[in-house]
Amino acid sequence: MTANLHMNENPYLPDEKIRRAAARGLENLNRYSEWKYLIELKTLLGEYNHVSSERIVLSHGSDMLLREVINIFSGNRKIIMVSPSFFPVAHYALKQASRLTKIQISPSDFRLNPQLLLNELDEPALIIIDNPNNPTGKILLENGFAEKILQNKNALLLVDEAYFEFSGRTFAGMIDKYPNLAVARTMDKAFSLAGLRLGYLIMGDYFKDHFSDFPAYLATPTLFAAIEALRNTESMMANVDKIGREKARMEIELSKAGIHVFQSSTNFILIKTKIPDFAKKLKEEGVVIKDMSGEWLAGYYRISVGLPEENNVLLSLVKKLIN
Amino acid sequence: MKKTGLIVNPIAGMGGSVGLKGTDGKTYNKALELGAKPTTPKSIDDTLALITRKDLYFVVAPGKMGEDFVRKFDFQYEVVSKIGEETNADDTKRIVGEMIEKGITLLVFVGGDGTARDIYDVLGLTIPVVGIPSGVKMFSPVFALSTAAAAEIINNESGQFIEKEVLDIDEQAFREGKLGAKLYGYLKVPKNVNLLQGKKEPSNVSKPEELSKEEIAQYVLEKMEPDTLYILGPGTTLSTIAQKMNVSKTLLGIDAVVNGRLVGADLNEKGLLELIKKYDKTKIILTPIGGNGFIFGRASKQFTPEVLKLIPKENIIVVATEDKISRLECLRVDTGNTEVDENLKGPVKVITGIKTETIIEVK
Ligand SMILES: Cc1ncc(COP(=O)(O)O)c(C=O)c1O
């Protein structure tokens, strides 16, 4: 058995109906997707998020949209990011930024000190925060803090809510009030569509003005699956619920085994352990987790919550390694 | 064939387990009496077993310092030098010297911080090394993350190198919960994505260390103010700054410049205090130690509390490459004076390039 617990994926396949919808999308493979489906998807996403569908822009994966925001706004704005954060976007920002200020969050609470960020807003800035944060799983932005940022005329705030369905926390409700706010979302996590890639941005007016010509043709299987998934979100919610319960169990069991576990608001868990070659030893047994020493700190590992049987294998391996 | 030196410190780390400091000379026998067991054999076997490269020709130290291990595998090798029953630091240094004469282009070593220092004494930055961790706690960032990582580095070594710190650790202080780390030197290690960068994310966007240092140096130079005393701490990042200014800096010492001219080299506390008194304004530029993040450690003797009391916090400029800073939990100070430490704590802006900075907590 191999268990891939290193990419923060959803271990459950989407519902049968959704898979069938995706398969139907293959029938006109030689054609570009039709506008009416793009519009239908935007409408459904508008309803799902209680925002106007005009505020939504679609892409294959939210990753692309995060990069596009950097492309558009970083020319004459400083980028402010938290370190660590979602690595591909952090790398991209480092490459593209005309100026970049990182604010490091550190163990064990990984708290973002609001004042440190607010102090940086004396010039035009694009602030990108993944909330909850990857890899720590922590909520970094509270409402009051976000509003303080948004009330500053220099600030554009992009909140990456890839794990919204797991955290239950969103700033989408502020989108009409603050033109300088954008919220990035994905259906690749909670909706189990990572293999089809569906990301979207919910845009305040200022962002919206800059995205009018963003290419919108998506792969039809992706479109069909996303539409079907949003028509009935029950199976998604049931999966999120199952993952949440498994996560709680894992947190307890790993702690009991003597592993340092950081509380997470996502479908993954950050841990710290001194067991040498921890990830490598698990990999030899078929369990793949993310070793954070590559880009970040040695001794830290990120583990996605898998199927209960995968989690059990992981737990029993951990117990064996500790003894 | 790639001539590769292999040297094992057979008694590295044995003292630690029984509460002794280091394992040279007499302490070794004491350690044995106290029931210490060598930890190196397993590490070296683990690494050698994972080496898949076919073009290696090992130049090994005799017996338990190398030969005993390669013999079990299928490598081509020759043995250099001789050793007696008991081995010590002088053996390490002598044998490494002989390996250099044999023309090795890479040195694989197994041991602890002390072994790394012995090797640095002979090699400096000439020949790259791969340090196999030997099972006890090691502080010098020069070591590979694991025995498997060491094998991967050897397998994929491709001629790109970076410098990593060799530390002199006050182990006694460490056991008392105080981190005393003094920079001892630098060794060249192969830059390897499997060790230094995760496999999932693209590594092509991360900047080479050298370029990062150049950028930092350029930025610092542009910001330098006239008639200000700049005290430059140890390390290669600071050396790059000095190079850009055309002044020659001691790699491990503390030096000072004013208006682009060197006004003090390898300064001690007294030298620093005298210079600081002479100038209206003083700034310190320094870089944290990789791995533990020390900017002012107990053991970096020259920056004493008396010196630091004379420098306002905003005049302390911290520089570090992206790679180094992103691998630190935080920055640390431990000057031995609580008041001075408290004053230095809190967030600081670290310069990481021409256009980049990182705000990080000093703890
Ligand atoms: C914080 C964060 N943002 C964005 C993404 C990218 O998701 P998508 O599949 O939508 O590109 C991820 C995926 O791991 C993530 O962790």
Protein architecture, described:
- The complex is a heterodimer of chains A (323) and B (363).
- Chain A is an alpha/beta fold and 323 residues long.
- Chain A has helices at 16-24, 35-49, 62-73, 87-96, 114-118, 143-150, 164-167, 205-210, 220-231, 234-256, 278-284, 308-322, and strands at 3-5, 56-59, 78-83, 99-104, 125-130, 155-160, 181-186, 199-203, 260-262, 268-272, 287-291, 300-304.
- In chain A, the strands form 2 sheets. In chain A, strands 2-8-7-6-5-3-4 form a 7-stranded mixed beta sheet, with helices on both faces. In chain A, strands 1-11-12-10-9 form a 5-stranded mixed beta sheet.
- In chain A, helix 1 (16-24) runs antiparallel to helix 9 and helix 2 (35-49) packs parallel to helix 9.
- The radius of gyration of chain A is 20 Å and the shape is globular.
- By secondary structure, chain B is α/β, with parallel strands linked by helices.
- Chain B has 2 domains: 2-195, Probable inorganic polyphosphate/atp-NAD kinase, domain 1 (Rossmann fold, 3-Layer(aba) Sandwich); 207-362, 3-Layer(aba) Sandwich (Rossmann fold), CATH 3.40.50.
- Chain B is 33% helix and 23% strand.
- Chain B contains 15 helices and 16 strands.
- In chain B, the strands form 4 sheets. A 7-stranded mixed beta sheet of chain B has the order 10-9-8-11-13-15-16, with helices on both faces. A 5-stranded parallel beta sheet of chain B has the order 3-2-1-4-5, with helices on both faces. Chain B has a two-stranded antiparallel sheet with strand order 6-7.
- In chain B, helix 6 links the parallel strand 4 and strand 5.
- The longest helix of chain B is centred in the middle third of the chain and has 15 residues, at 209-223.
- Chain B is elongated, with a radius of gyration of 21 Å.
- The chains are: A alpha/beta (323), B alpha/beta (363).
- The interface between A and B is medium-sized, with 34 and 30 residues.
- Strand 4 of chain A pairs parallel with strand 16 (356-362) of chain B, so a sheet runs across the interface.
- The structure holds pyridoxal-5'-phosphate.
- Residues 8, 61-63, 86, 130, 134, 160, 162, 186, 188, 194, 197, 199 of chain A line the site of pyridoxal-5'-phosphate (PLP).
